[in-house]
Design brief:
With 180 residues, this protein is mainly beta. The protein has two domains: 31 residues; 136 residues, lipopolysaccharide transport protein A fold (Sandwich), CATH 2.60.450.10. Helix content is 11%, strand content 54%. Strands 2-3-6-7-5-4 form a six-stranded antiparallel β-barrel. Strand 6 and strand 7 form a beta hairpin. The termini are far apart. It comes from Pleionea litopenaei. Keywords: Cell inner membrane, Cell membrane, Membrane, Transmembrane, Transmembrane helix. One of its GO terms (cellular component) is outer membrane-bounded periplasmic space. InterPro entries: LipoPS_assembly_LptC-rel (IPR010664), LPS_export_LptC (IPR052363), LptC (IPR026265). One of its GO terms (molecular function) is glycolipid transfer activity.
Length: 180
Amino acid sequence: MRIRRRHTPYILTALVAVIFLVNYLRSPNSQPSDSQLSEHVVIQQFSQKQFDENGILVHRVEAATAEVNDHQMELTQPVLETLHQQISWRISAARASSQDHLKHIQFSEQVEIRQPQQQALSLTTESLSYDVAQKRLLSNQPVLLKDQFDTLTANRLMLDITSLDIELSDGVSGTQHDNK
């Protein structure tokens, strides 16, 4: 097929228009700005997994709903499962919030900590802070710790998942019971 010279200016004009249109649609000005995007996102059946550099699961966070506003995240019925040296920990609550992409999580209302491998061990409180990087749990609220032998209460808790150190302080009391 041979293009006649008198059609060449029309073809070139059409090509320039198409290139202009494609570049315009790709330009940042044509994309919605942050202020135009929805500032409030609700995710049903939220789930997030984090892996280490070797591809091993570090923790999983699930929730019935997650509400995201900028850097703030509010979780309903959250469950966090974390693993350190083959020991699994499960933290559940009615609510949780995080302001830094789940690096620090504040659990609230009916907070429960369990080791699935050790069904007899449970910890309950109304408020708990979890530092994901340090794998450290802190609570300044009354805490109830139960295992097959003891029931302990305290007004403060520090639990280091990496060393398995549990520190109860401020008004610690307890009772011993038989495992019969």
